[in-house]
Amino acid sequence: MMKMQDAALPSQASVVIVGGGIQGLACAFNLARNGRKGVLVLDAGYWQGGASGRNGTLIRGGFGSQAWIELFEFSTRCWQDLSRTLGHNTMFSRRGYTMVAETERTAGVLNDTIRLHHQYGVKAELLSGQGVRRVLPAIRHDKVLNAIHLADGGVAPHHAGMKAFHAACLEAGVDVRYRTRVTGIETQNGRAAAVLLGDHRIAAETIVVAAGGFNLTVAEMAGVTVPGHSMRIEAMALEPIRPLIGPGIALIDSLCYMHQTARGEVVGGTEVPERPRMSLTADFPVLARTAGVYARLFPQLAELRILRHWAGLIHATPDWAPLIGPHPELRDLWFSAGWSYGWTGGPGTGVLLARSIAEGKVERRLQPFALDRFLRGAPLTDKTIVM
Question: Where does the FAD dependent oxidoreductase domain start and stop, copy by copy (predicted)?
Fold first, then answer.
């Protein structure tokens, strides 16, 4: 039997999704699961070649604003049952996620945030003193003023999560094509009507753009714009060490995230000022800053060697929140774009976006992330974001 990847491209599809990362696959799987036929996923790169194969793999539902909490807490619950839902092991590890404050200002933010977490049903605990020592025994406790521990947070490795979604999509009848570049989007009478791949045309009832760092390029193909710019994010992995860090960690003041893998490697990165760019070349400044933060908060890591250092591309929006829903200027063109926490948000957004497309109405939890929110003066700010 001919593999679907090698079969001739169709001339029409019900839904064409441009982008085969976690956002595209999650939307495709849920569309097919709900009975939608003719779902086609097209990706110019290789499987796991984008941000879904390069991010920090951390998962949390607790943030500092209602919109972020409602979407990401739902997605975190989806992660907990995802292996059962997909029929494949995602290797999700519910080890918790801890947000750490090193300054009085951020400690105050976490004091406010914990009340919001309790209001919206997030399993969260405000830690100080002995509480911090219990959850993070290896951290320099003199550097920590307080912390929030999210019991339901955790980690899911790329290879397992992406393999599970890809396999589940194929089993559900989704046509998934990698190394298949969309070169244009045809519009007719105010709607997105087809995708073009060189001389080949695929008519579509709905087109979904979930192309990560290339969202702006794909939007331009349709003659529309979306807020934000493409930029590079970097991460690194240290050589294995004995078990030292239990949960995933966000060091909010240091703009640093980290966790320890099952193999003992400490993986994470630190945010530095970055200009818009499309390069995957990893630079020394991020590596140096990340190493400095690690050594300052976890002196046990100071003498370890760096094994790997890599970069990935994201589509960064002015408020760092995603852009989800239909484009206000072109019918039948939807976006799942602008992601900075796309790995966390993928499973839940896939459920809600597929439902929204099927019903022709944006689900309540997605509405705050509308593409036109900046034009309406409604950005989504959150003080607990760490890139």
Answer: 15-355
What are the boundaries of each domain within the chain? 10-54+159-227+319-369, 94-153+230-316
CATH for 94-153+230-316, among 1.10.260.40, 3.30.9.10, 3.20.20.70, 3.40.605.10?
3.30.9.10
Over 60: is that where the pLDDT of 189 sits?
A: yes
Residue 375 CA, chain-centre distance (Å), reads 24
b/e code 203-231 from CB counts within 10 Å (16+ = b)? ebbbbbbbbbbbbbebbebbebebbbbbb
Tell me the pTM. 0.95
Check if the beta carbon of residue 196 is closer than 8 Å to that of residue 208.
no
pLDDT of residue 1: 32
In the structure encoding, which two tokens stand for residue 366, read together? 């997605």
Task: Evaluate whether 351 touches 212 at the Cβ level (below 8 Å).
Answer: no
Q: Identify the CA nearest to 192 among candidates 327, 91, 306.
A: 327
CA distance 350 to 219: 20
Q: Is the pLDDT of residue 251 over 80?
A: yes
In 239-347, where do the E strands start and end? 248-251, 256-260, 266-270, 306-316, 323-326, 333-337
